[in-house]
Amino acid sequence: MIRVELPFHLRKLARVDGEVQLEVAGPVTQRSVLDALEARYPMLRGTIRDHVTQKRRAFVRFFACEQDLSHELPDAPLPVAIATGAEPFAVVGAMAGG
Amino acid sequence: MSRVRLLVGTRKGAFVLTADGKRESWEISGPHFAGWEIYHLKGSPVDPNRLYASQSSGWFGQQIQRSEDGGKTWEPVGNEFVYDGVPGTHQWYDGTQHPWEFKRVWHLEPSLTDPDTVYAGAEDASLFRTLDGGKSWQELPGLRSAKGNLWQPGAGGMCLHTILLDPSQPGRIFVAISAAGAFRSDDEGQTWQPINRGLKSLYELPDPTAEVGHCVHRIAMHSSRPGVLFMQKHWDVMRSENAGDSWDEVSGNLPSDFGFPIDIHAHEPETIYVVPIKSDSEHFPPDGKLRVYRSRTGGNEWEALTNGLPQSDCYVNVLRDAMAVDSLDQCGVYFGTTGGQVYGSADAGNTWKPIVRDLPAVLSVEVQTLP
Prior knowledge:
The structure holds 2 protein chains of 2 kinds.
Chain A: E1 2-5, H1 8-14, E2 20-22, H2 30-40, E3 60-64, E4 67-68, H3 80-83, E5 89-93
Parallel strand pairs in A: 1-5
Antiparallel strand pairs in A: 1-2, 3-4, 3-5
Chain B: E1 3-10, E2 13-20, E3 27-32, E4 37-43, E5 51-57, E6 61-67, E7 75-76, E8 89-91, E9 97-99, E10 104-110, E11 118-123, E12 126-130, E13 138-139, E14 160-165, E15 173-177, E16 181-185, E17 193-194, E18 216-221, E19 229-233, E20 237-240, E21 248-249, E22 258-264, E23 272-277, E24 292-295, E25 303-305, E26 323-325, E27 333-336, E28 342-345, E29 353-356, E30 362-370
Protein backbone atom coordinates (compact mmCIF):
# COMPACT_ATOMS: atom_id res chain seq x y z
CA MET A 1 0.00 0.00 0.00
CA ILE A 2 1.40 3.38 -1.03
CA ARG A 3 0.96 6.28 1.39
CA VAL A 4 0.49 9.76 -0.05
CA GLU A 5 0.49 12.99 1.92
CA LEU A 6 -1.43 15.83 0.31
CA PRO A 7 -1.16 19.53 1.13
CA PHE A 8 -4.00 21.22 3.01
CA HIS A 9 -5.83 22.63 -0.01
CA LEU A 10 -5.79 19.36 -1.92
CA ARG A 11 -6.98 17.42 1.15
CA LYS A 12 -9.89 19.83 1.38
CA LEU A 13 -10.60 19.51 -2.32
CA ALA A 14 -10.52 15.72 -2.21
CA ARG A 15 -12.35 15.71 1.14
CA VAL A 16 -9.85 13.49 2.90
CA ASP A 17 -8.24 13.70 6.32
CA GLY A 18 -4.64 12.69 6.80
CA GLU A 19 -2.78 10.40 4.45
CA VAL A 20 -4.27 8.69 1.42
CA GLN A 21 -3.49 5.00 0.91
CA LEU A 22 -3.37 3.64 -2.62
CA GLU A 23 -2.89 0.35 -4.39
CA VAL A 24 -0.47 0.80 -7.27
CA ALA A 25 -0.15 -1.91 -9.88
CA GLY A 26 3.30 -2.47 -11.38
CA PRO A 27 6.38 -0.34 -10.79
CA VAL A 28 6.00 2.38 -8.17
CA THR A 29 6.91 5.65 -9.89
CA GLN A 30 5.73 9.24 -9.69
CA ARG A 31 3.54 8.61 -12.70
CA SER A 32 1.95 5.41 -11.39
CA VAL A 33 1.32 6.88 -7.95
CA LEU A 34 -0.23 10.05 -9.36
CA ASP A 35 -2.27 8.05 -11.88
CA ALA A 36 -3.68 5.99 -9.01
CA LEU A 37 -4.29 9.10 -6.92
CA GLU A 38 -6.18 10.86 -9.72
CA ALA A 39 -8.19 7.74 -10.51
CA ARG A 40 -9.40 7.62 -6.91
CA TYR A 41 -9.88 11.40 -6.62
CA PRO A 42 -10.72 12.80 -10.08
CA MET A 43 -11.03 16.34 -8.71
CA LEU A 44 -7.24 16.31 -8.26
CA ARG A 45 -6.64 16.04 -12.01
CA GLY A 46 -4.91 19.17 -13.16
CA THR A 47 -3.96 20.28 -9.66
CA ILE A 48 -0.63 18.46 -9.42
CA ARG A 49 0.17 17.87 -13.08
CA ASP A 50 -0.83 19.87 -16.12
CA HIS A 51 -3.82 18.35 -17.91
CA VAL A 52 -2.14 18.32 -21.29
CA THR A 53 1.60 17.92 -20.73
CA GLN A 54 1.28 15.83 -17.56
CA LYS A 55 4.25 17.80 -16.22
CA ARG A 56 4.41 18.75 -12.54
CA ARG A 57 2.88 22.17 -11.91
CA ALA A 58 5.51 24.80 -11.22
CA PHE A 59 4.70 25.35 -7.54
CA VAL A 60 4.23 21.71 -6.58
CA ARG A 61 7.04 19.63 -5.13
CA PHE A 62 7.44 15.91 -4.40
CA PHE A 63 9.30 15.01 -1.21
CA ALA A 64 10.02 11.54 0.18
CA CYS A 65 12.59 9.93 2.45
CA GLU A 66 14.08 13.36 3.16
CA GLN A 67 14.78 13.90 -0.51
CA ASP A 68 13.36 16.31 -3.08
CA LEU A 69 12.21 14.05 -5.91
CA SER A 70 10.56 16.86 -7.87
CA HIS A 71 13.09 16.75 -10.68
CA GLU A 72 13.26 12.98 -11.04
CA LEU A 73 11.88 11.49 -14.21
CA PRO A 74 8.21 10.53 -13.86
CA ASP A 75 8.91 6.90 -14.72
CA ALA A 76 11.94 6.52 -12.43
CA PRO A 77 11.35 4.03 -9.59
CA LEU A 78 10.56 5.70 -6.28
CA PRO A 79 12.57 4.67 -3.20
CA VAL A 80 11.85 1.21 -1.81
CA ALA A 81 10.55 2.74 1.41
CA ILE A 82 7.76 4.38 -0.60
CA ALA A 83 6.96 1.19 -2.47
CA THR A 84 6.71 -0.77 0.78
CA GLY A 85 4.65 1.89 2.54
CA ALA A 86 7.31 2.52 5.15
CA GLU A 87 7.49 6.19 4.15
CA PRO A 88 4.87 8.48 2.56
CA PHE A 89 5.16 10.19 -0.79
CA ALA A 90 4.52 13.85 -0.03
CA VAL A 91 2.92 16.26 -2.51
CA VAL A 92 3.89 19.71 -1.29
CA GLY A 93 2.84 23.23 -2.21
CA ALA A 94 6.11 25.08 -2.78
CA MET A 95 7.10 27.89 -0.45
CA ALA A 96 5.68 31.15 -1.69
CA GLY A 97 8.15 33.50 -0.09
CA GLY A 98 7.09 36.96 0.89
CA MET B 1 -41.24 38.75 0.48
CA SER B 2 -38.43 38.86 -2.05
CA ARG B 3 -34.87 38.25 -0.96
CA VAL B 4 -31.47 39.05 -2.33
CA ARG B 5 -28.35 36.92 -2.35
CA LEU B 6 -24.95 38.43 -2.99
CA LEU B 7 -22.22 36.17 -4.33
CA VAL B 8 -18.86 37.66 -3.42
CA GLY B 9 -15.57 36.34 -4.79
CA THR B 10 -12.39 37.36 -2.98
CA ARG B 11 -8.67 36.69 -3.00
CA LYS B 12 -9.11 34.15 -0.21
CA GLY B 13 -12.49 32.52 -0.68
CA ALA B 14 -16.15 33.05 -1.51
CA PHE B 15 -18.86 34.56 0.64
CA VAL B 16 -22.63 34.42 0.31
CA LEU B 17 -24.54 37.36 1.79
CA THR B 18 -28.31 37.16 2.10
CA ALA B 19 -31.01 39.59 3.18
CA ASP B 20 -34.73 40.08 2.84
CA GLY B 21 -36.20 42.74 0.56
CA LYS B 22 -35.50 45.52 3.02
CA ARG B 23 -31.78 44.81 2.67
CA GLU B 24 -31.01 46.07 6.14
CA SER B 25 -29.95 42.93 7.98
CA TRP B 26 -27.50 40.56 6.32
CA GLU B 27 -26.47 37.00 6.99
CA ILE B 28 -22.96 36.14 5.89
CA SER B 29 -21.74 32.64 5.11
CA GLY B 30 -18.18 31.73 4.24
CA PRO B 31 -15.43 31.59 3.50
CA HIS B 32 -16.20 28.88 1.00
CA PHE B 33 -13.04 27.44 -0.59
CA ALA B 34 -10.99 29.24 2.04
CA GLY B 35 -7.56 30.26 0.88
CA TRP B 36 -8.33 30.00 -2.85
CA GLU B 37 -8.84 32.89 -5.21
CA ILE B 38 -12.47 33.07 -6.27
CA TYR B 39 -12.55 35.24 -9.32
CA HIS B 40 -16.27 34.92 -9.92
CA LEU B 41 -19.50 33.21 -8.91
CA LYS B 42 -22.80 33.39 -10.72
CA GLY B 43 -26.22 31.72 -10.59
CA SER B 44 -28.32 30.36 -13.41
CA PRO B 45 -31.13 32.76 -14.36
CA VAL B 46 -33.47 29.78 -14.88
CA ASP B 47 -32.45 27.84 -11.76
CA PRO B 48 -31.23 30.37 -9.19
CA ASN B 49 -30.07 27.73 -6.72
CA ARG B 50 -27.67 26.39 -9.35
CA LEU B 51 -24.48 28.37 -8.81
CA TYR B 52 -21.11 28.15 -10.47
CA ALA B 53 -17.82 29.35 -8.98
CA SER B 54 -14.36 29.79 -10.45
CA GLN B 55 -11.79 28.69 -7.88
CA SER B 56 -8.10 29.02 -8.66
CA SER B 57 -4.68 28.96 -7.12
CA GLY B 58 -1.18 29.73 -8.28
CA TRP B 59 -0.15 26.39 -6.83
CA PHE B 60 -2.93 24.04 -7.84
CA GLY B 61 -4.57 25.64 -10.87
CA GLN B 62 -8.21 25.90 -11.79
CA GLN B 63 -11.33 24.32 -10.33
CA ILE B 64 -14.97 24.92 -11.16
CA GLN B 65 -17.41 24.33 -8.33
CA ARG B 66 -21.16 23.89 -8.65
CA SER B 67 -23.88 24.27 -6.04
CA GLU B 68 -27.46 23.02 -6.30
CA ASP B 69 -28.68 24.67 -3.11
CA GLY B 70 -27.83 28.32 -3.44
CA GLY B 71 -24.30 28.03 -2.13
CA LYS B 72 -24.78 25.92 1.00
CA THR B 73 -22.91 22.95 -0.46
CA TRP B 74 -20.61 22.64 -3.44
CA GLU B 75 -19.19 19.94 -5.69
CA PRO B 76 -16.13 20.25 -7.92
CA VAL B 77 -17.00 19.65 -11.57
CA GLY B 78 -14.74 19.70 -14.62
CA ASN B 79 -11.53 21.69 -14.62
CA GLU B 80 -10.00 20.72 -17.93
CA PHE B 81 -9.66 23.87 -20.04
CA VAL B 82 -7.69 22.96 -23.13
CA TYR B 83 -7.40 25.23 -26.14
CA ASP B 84 -8.84 23.85 -29.33
CA GLY B 85 -6.24 22.39 -31.69
CA VAL B 86 -2.82 23.97 -31.86
CA PRO B 87 -3.41 27.13 -29.85
CA GLY B 88 -0.97 29.35 -31.73
CA THR B 89 0.54 32.54 -30.42
CA HIS B 90 -0.24 36.12 -29.45
CA GLN B 91 1.87 39.23 -28.96
CA TRP B 92 4.17 39.22 -25.96
CA TYR B 93 5.57 42.15 -23.99
CA ASP B 94 8.85 42.11 -25.89
CA GLY B 95 7.19 42.12 -29.30
CA THR B 96 7.73 38.44 -29.93
CA GLN B 97 4.96 35.91 -30.35
CA HIS B 98 4.06 33.85 -27.27
CA PRO B 99 2.02 30.64 -27.10
CA TRP B 100 -1.44 30.75 -25.57
CA GLU B 101 -1.33 29.37 -22.01
CA PHE B 102 -4.39 28.76 -19.86
CA LYS B 103 -4.12 30.42 -16.43
CA ARG B 104 -7.56 30.81 -14.90
CA VAL B 105 -11.24 31.53 -15.45
CA TRP B 106 -12.13 35.14 -14.74
CA HIS B 107 -15.85 35.10 -15.43
CA LEU B 108 -18.66 32.56 -15.65
CA GLU B 109 -21.85 33.43 -17.52
CA PRO B 110 -24.68 30.89 -17.25
CA SER B 111 -27.06 30.61 -20.20
CA LEU B 112 -30.31 32.57 -20.05
CA THR B 113 -32.30 29.44 -20.87
CA ASP B 114 -30.41 26.28 -19.87
CA PRO B 115 -28.87 25.73 -16.41
CA ASP B 116 -26.35 23.25 -17.81
CA THR B 117 -24.92 25.69 -20.35
CA VAL B 118 -22.31 28.13 -19.08
CA TYR B 119 -19.73 30.31 -20.81
CA ALA B 120 -16.34 30.82 -19.20
CA GLY B 121 -13.98 33.69 -19.94
CA ALA B 122 -10.37 32.67 -19.49
CA GLU B 123 -6.86 34.06 -19.25
CA ASP B 124 -5.06 33.78 -21.70
CA ALA B 125 -8.04 35.29 -23.43
CA SER B 126 -10.45 32.72 -24.77
CA LEU B 127 -14.05 31.65 -24.42
CA PHE B 128 -15.05 28.19 -23.24
CA ARG B 129 -18.50 26.64 -22.95
CA THR B 130 -19.98 23.72 -21.10
CA LEU B 131 -23.21 22.03 -22.12
CA ASP B 132 -23.25 19.51 -19.26
CA GLY B 133 -23.29 21.61 -16.13
CA GLY B 134 -19.56 22.15 -15.96
CA LYS B 135 -18.35 18.56 -16.31
CA SER B 136 -16.62 19.25 -19.60
CA TRP B 137 -15.55 22.46 -21.29
CA GLN B 138 -14.92 23.15 -24.96
CA GLU B 139 -13.27 26.22 -26.38
CA LEU B 140 -15.04 28.38 -28.97
CA PRO B 141 -11.84 28.99 -30.93
CA GLY B 142 -13.33 31.35 -33.50
CA LEU B 143 -12.80 34.21 -31.07
CA ARG B 144 -9.04 33.89 -31.21
CA SER B 145 -9.30 34.12 -35.00
CA ALA B 146 -10.41 37.74 -34.59
CA LYS B 147 -6.83 38.97 -34.88
CA GLY B 148 -5.76 37.10 -31.76
CA ASN B 149 -2.19 37.10 -32.98
CA LEU B 150 -2.19 40.89 -32.37
CA TRP B 151 -3.57 40.76 -28.83
CA GLN B 152 -1.09 41.56 -26.11
CA PRO B 153 -1.48 41.18 -22.34
CA GLY B 154 -1.77 44.25 -20.16
CA ALA B 155 -0.42 44.43 -16.63
CA GLY B 156 -3.42 42.52 -15.30
CA GLY B 157 -3.05 39.66 -17.73
CA MET B 158 -4.76 38.94 -21.04
CA CYS B 159 -8.12 38.02 -19.62
CA LEU B 160 -11.58 37.62 -21.08
CA HIS B 161 -13.57 39.24 -18.28
CA THR B 162 -16.97 40.21 -19.68
CA ILE B 163 -19.57 37.99 -21.35
CA LEU B 164 -23.00 39.40 -22.25
CA LEU B 165 -25.75 37.24 -23.71
CA ASP B 166 -28.36 39.10 -25.74
CA PRO B 167 -31.83 38.04 -24.54
CA SER B 168 -33.52 39.35 -27.67
CA GLN B 169 -31.31 37.65 -30.19
CA PRO B 170 -30.31 34.07 -29.34
CA GLY B 171 -26.81 33.41 -30.54
CA ARG B 172 -25.61 36.99 -30.08
CA ILE B 173 -22.77 37.22 -27.55
CA PHE B 174 -20.58 40.16 -26.59
CA VAL B 175 -17.23 39.67 -24.87
CA ALA B 176 -14.51 42.03 -23.72
CA ILE B 177 -10.84 41.28 -23.28
CA SER B 178 -8.29 43.30 -21.37
CA ALA B 179 -5.89 44.97 -23.80
CA ALA B 180 -7.59 43.41 -26.83
CA GLY B 181 -11.02 45.05 -26.98
CA ALA B 182 -14.67 44.15 -27.45
CA PHE B 183 -15.97 41.47 -29.80
CA ARG B 184 -19.38 40.27 -30.99
CA SER B 185 -20.66 36.97 -32.29
CA ASP B 186 -24.04 36.46 -33.93
CA ASP B 187 -23.77 32.70 -34.29
CA GLU B 188 -23.40 31.36 -30.74
CA GLY B 189 -19.71 32.04 -30.59
CA GLN B 190 -18.59 30.34 -33.79
CA THR B 191 -17.37 33.51 -35.54
CA TRP B 192 -16.49 36.91 -34.14
CA GLN B 193 -15.82 40.47 -35.19
CA PRO B 194 -14.02 43.22 -33.27
CA ILE B 195 -16.40 46.04 -32.28
CA ASN B 196 -14.03 48.82 -31.30
CA ARG B 197 -14.78 51.62 -33.78
CA GLY B 198 -14.82 54.94 -31.95
CA LEU B 199 -12.52 53.85 -29.15
CA LYS B 200 -9.41 55.96 -28.77
CA SER B 201 -6.38 54.82 -26.81
CA LEU B 202 -4.12 57.84 -27.15
CA TYR B 203 -1.52 56.79 -24.61
CA GLU B 204 -1.70 53.01 -24.88
CA LEU B 205 -1.55 52.28 -28.62
CA PRO B 206 0.68 53.53 -31.42
CA ASP B 207 -2.46 53.72 -33.58
CA PRO B 208 -5.04 55.15 -31.15
CA THR B 209 -7.95 53.92 -33.27
CA ALA B 210 -6.64 50.43 -33.99
CA GLU B 211 -9.17 47.70 -34.69
CA VAL B 212 -7.94 45.64 -31.70
CA GLY B 213 -5.71 46.32 -28.72
CA HIS B 214 -7.94 48.65 -26.67
CA CYS B 215 -8.04 47.98 -22.96
CA VAL B 216 -11.73 47.52 -22.33
CA HIS B 217 -12.41 47.14 -18.62
CA ARG B 218 -16.11 46.32 -18.64
CA ILE B 219 -19.24 46.39 -20.79
CA ALA B 220 -22.82 46.59 -19.54
CA MET B 221 -26.13 45.94 -21.29
CA HIS B 222 -29.72 46.38 -20.13
CA SER B 223 -31.90 43.40 -20.98
CA SER B 224 -34.74 45.61 -22.21
CA ARG B 225 -32.51 47.33 -24.76
CA PRO B 226 -29.67 45.01 -25.68
CA GLY B 227 -28.49 47.05 -28.65
CA VAL B 228 -27.34 49.83 -26.34
CA LEU B 229 -24.04 49.09 -24.65
CA PHE B 230 -22.04 51.02 -22.08
CA MET B 231 -18.31 50.58 -21.62
CA GLN B 232 -15.77 51.55 -19.01
CA LYS B 233 -12.51 51.60 -20.90
CA HIS B 234 -9.05 51.98 -19.38
CA TRP B 235 -9.68 55.69 -19.86
CA ASP B 236 -13.10 56.90 -21.12
CA VAL B 237 -16.68 55.86 -20.54
CA MET B 238 -18.30 54.97 -23.84
CA ARG B 239 -21.75 54.29 -25.25
CA SER B 240 -22.90 52.39 -28.33
CA GLU B 241 -26.37 52.66 -29.88
CA ASN B 242 -25.78 49.91 -32.41
CA ALA B 243 -24.59 46.80 -30.59
CA GLY B 244 -21.01 47.91 -30.65
CA ASP B 245 -20.69 48.86 -34.31
CA SER B 246 -19.55 52.29 -33.14
CA TRP B 247 -18.92 54.01 -29.82
CA ASP B 248 -19.14 57.58 -28.53
CA GLU B 249 -17.58 58.96 -25.41
CA VAL B 250 -19.96 59.91 -22.57
CA SER B 251 -17.43 60.65 -19.81
CA GLY B 252 -18.83 64.19 -19.48
CA ASN B 253 -18.18 65.76 -16.07
CA LEU B 254 -16.65 62.72 -14.32
CA PRO B 255 -13.69 63.69 -12.11
CA SER B 256 -11.73 60.91 -13.81
CA ASP B 257 -12.88 58.70 -16.64
CA PHE B 258 -10.54 55.90 -15.62
CA GLY B 259 -12.20 53.05 -13.76
CA PHE B 260 -13.17 49.42 -13.86
CA PRO B 261 -16.85 48.52 -13.29
CA ILE B 262 -19.92 49.92 -15.02
CA ASP B 263 -23.50 48.84 -14.43
CA ILE B 264 -27.07 49.83 -15.26
CA HIS B 265 -30.13 50.38 -13.06
CA ALA B 266 -32.47 47.39 -13.24
CA HIS B 267 -35.52 49.43 -14.28
CA GLU B 268 -34.05 52.56 -15.86
CA PRO B 269 -31.89 51.71 -18.85
CA GLU B 270 -30.51 55.25 -19.06
CA THR B 271 -29.31 55.23 -15.45
CA ILE B 272 -25.73 53.99 -15.24
CA TYR B 273 -23.12 53.73 -12.51
CA VAL B 274 -19.32 53.95 -12.51
CA VAL B 275 -16.64 54.32 -9.84
CA PRO B 276 -13.98 56.80 -11.00
CA ILE B 277 -10.39 55.90 -10.16
CA LYS B 278 -7.66 58.51 -10.20
CA SER B 279 -5.50 57.10 -12.99
CA ASP B 280 -3.88 54.06 -14.51
CA SER B 281 -0.88 54.77 -12.31
CA GLU B 282 -2.83 55.37 -9.09
CA HIS B 283 -5.57 52.81 -8.67
CA PHE B 284 -7.58 54.54 -5.96
CA PRO B 285 -10.39 57.11 -5.84
CA PRO B 286 -9.53 60.75 -6.58
CA ASP B 287 -8.86 62.79 -3.44
CA GLY B 288 -9.25 59.73 -1.21
CA LYS B 289 -13.05 59.97 -1.60
CA LEU B 290 -14.96 56.84 -2.54
CA ARG B 291 -17.68 58.08 -4.87
CA VAL B 292 -20.02 56.19 -7.13
CA TYR B 293 -21.12 58.35 -10.04
CA ARG B 294 -24.58 58.00 -11.50
CA SER B 295 -25.86 59.30 -14.78
CA ARG B 296 -29.61 59.39 -15.35
CA THR B 297 -29.14 60.50 -18.94
CA GLY B 298 -27.19 57.57 -20.31
CA GLY B 299 -23.89 59.36 -19.79
CA ASN B 300 -22.32 62.83 -20.10
CA GLU B 301 -24.09 64.26 -17.03
CA TRP B 302 -22.96 62.61 -13.81
CA GLU B 303 -23.71 63.12 -10.13
CA ALA B 304 -21.57 61.96 -7.23
CA LEU B 305 -23.18 59.52 -4.79
CA THR B 306 -21.39 59.85 -1.47
CA ASN B 307 -23.92 59.39 1.32
CA GLY B 308 -22.56 56.62 3.50
CA LEU B 309 -19.30 56.16 1.60
CA PRO B 310 -15.93 57.23 3.08
CA GLN B 311 -15.05 60.74 1.96
CA SER B 312 -11.54 60.97 3.31
CA ASP B 313 -8.43 58.79 3.38
CA CYS B 314 -9.95 56.05 1.22
CA TYR B 315 -7.49 54.35 -1.11
CA VAL B 316 -9.21 51.16 -2.21
CA ASN B 317 -10.01 50.08 -5.74
CA VAL B 318 -13.21 48.59 -7.15
CA LEU B 319 -12.46 45.88 -9.68
CA ARG B 320 -14.27 45.31 -12.94
CA ASP B 321 -16.54 42.45 -11.86
CA ALA B 322 -17.25 43.86 -8.40
CA MET B 323 -20.48 45.80 -9.00
CA ALA B 324 -24.03 44.50 -9.41
CA VAL B 325 -27.65 45.62 -9.22
CA ASP B 326 -30.68 43.74 -7.95
CA SER B 327 -34.12 43.91 -9.56
CA LEU B 328 -36.32 44.73 -6.59
CA ASP B 329 -38.79 47.60 -7.13
CA GLN B 330 -36.36 49.97 -5.47
CA CYS B 331 -33.20 48.95 -7.31
CA GLY B 332 -30.32 47.89 -5.07
CA VAL B 333 -26.73 48.62 -6.06
CA TYR B 334 -23.73 46.78 -4.59
CA PHE B 335 -19.99 46.91 -4.96
CA GLY B 336 -16.94 45.41 -3.29
CA THR B 337 -13.49 46.91 -2.77
CA THR B 338 -9.94 45.70 -2.70
CA GLY B 339 -10.02 46.69 0.98
CA GLY B 340 -12.57 43.97 1.68
CA GLN B 341 -15.66 46.12 2.11
CA VAL B 342 -18.94 45.34 0.39
CA TYR B 343 -21.23 48.37 0.20
CA GLY B 344 -24.92 48.25 -0.61
CA SER B 345 -27.56 50.79 -1.47
CA ALA B 346 -31.24 49.89 -1.27
CA ASP B 347 -32.31 53.14 -2.95
CA ALA B 348 -30.54 53.14 -6.30
CA GLY B 349 -27.40 54.72 -4.92
CA ASN B 350 -28.81 57.64 -2.91
CA THR B 351 -27.51 56.20 0.36
CA TRP B 352 -24.97 53.50 1.11
CA LYS B 353 -24.08 51.22 3.99
CA PRO B 354 -21.28 48.73 4.42
CA ILE B 355 -22.70 45.21 4.48
CA VAL B 356 -19.37 43.77 5.59
CA ARG B 357 -16.09 45.58 6.14
CA ASP B 358 -13.22 43.16 6.52
CA LEU B 359 -13.29 40.50 3.85
CA PRO B 360 -10.21 39.69 1.76
CA ALA B 361 -9.84 41.85 -1.34
CA VAL B 362 -13.06 41.59 -3.32
CA LEU B 363 -12.71 40.37 -6.89
CA SER B 364 -16.36 40.07 -7.88
CA VAL B 365 -19.89 40.78 -6.72
CA GLU B 366 -23.03 39.31 -8.23
CA VAL B 367 -26.56 39.59 -6.88
CA GLN B 368 -29.58 37.37 -7.27
CA THR B 369 -33.11 38.63 -6.65
CA LEU B 370 -35.08 35.69 -5.27
CA PRO B 371 -38.83 35.22 -4.76
